[in-house]
Structures are given as C-alpha cells and as structure tokens.
Amino acid sequence: MDTKKCWICGNSIDGEVEIKLATQIEDLNLSTRVEHCLQRHSIRTVRELVELSLNDLLRMRNFGPHCAKELSEKIKAFGLKGWEIETSTATKKTR
C-alpha cells in the first residue's frame, strides 16, 4: 500500500500532519515581527504558511532573511519541512 505524501510539507499524510497544518500561527511562539508580517498578509494557519515559497515570504514588507530563518527553524522544530535558508541570505545587509 502506497503512503501518500503531502506536496506542501513532504510528510506522509495522516491525522498528525493534518493537525499540524491546522495549527494557528499564534501557537508557534514566533517573534512579534514575524507574527505581525504573517497576519498582515492574512496568513492564519501553518497550512497557509507552508504553501508559500521562500521568495513569497521575502517579498513581504518588513520580512527579511532573519525572519525567514526564524520561521524556517520553527516550522522544522514543529516537525514539518521548512525552507532552506542560505547562511549568506540571513546575514546583515550591506549598505
């Protein structure tokens, strides 16, 4: 029997993954900056969040490489596939 994989997170689809995807963004204990950026773009659940690409996130106002790195680490710690953030992407911008 083949196990179906979620195209969003790469995990096998089961009740546990469905529960994780339905989790509200507020429950991830994100920094205020990241949480507000997501709320401004009407992203309320983990499912809505993981449907976005890294480029989609970085195009959000006030959402930079450090925010992307924090968010990816939280998503990975939550047990889902995060975004691959290059170290150079998350370093301080030059003027």
Lay out the secondary structure.
Layout: H1 15-21, H2 32-40, H3 46-50, H4 54-58, H5 65-77
- CATH architecture tag of one domain: Orthogonal Bundle
Overall 3D form: globular
CATH topology of one domain: DNA polymerase, domain 1
* Span between termini: 55 Å
Please tally the helical runs, counting DSSP H or I stretches of 4 or more residues: 5
Q: What profile does the largest beta sheet have?
A: none
How many strands in all? 0
Structural class: mainly alpha
By CATH, the superfamily of one domain comes out as 5' to 3' exonuclease, C-terminal subdomain
What letter string, H or E per element, gives the SSE order?
Answer: HHHHH
Radius of gyration: 14 Å
CATH structural class of one domain: Mainly Alpha
The percent range for helix content is 40-55%
User: Mean pLDDT, as a whole number?
Assistant: 80
Q: What share of the residues does DSSP label as strand, in percent?
A: under 5%
Spans of 5+ residues with little confidence (pLDDT < 50)? 89-95
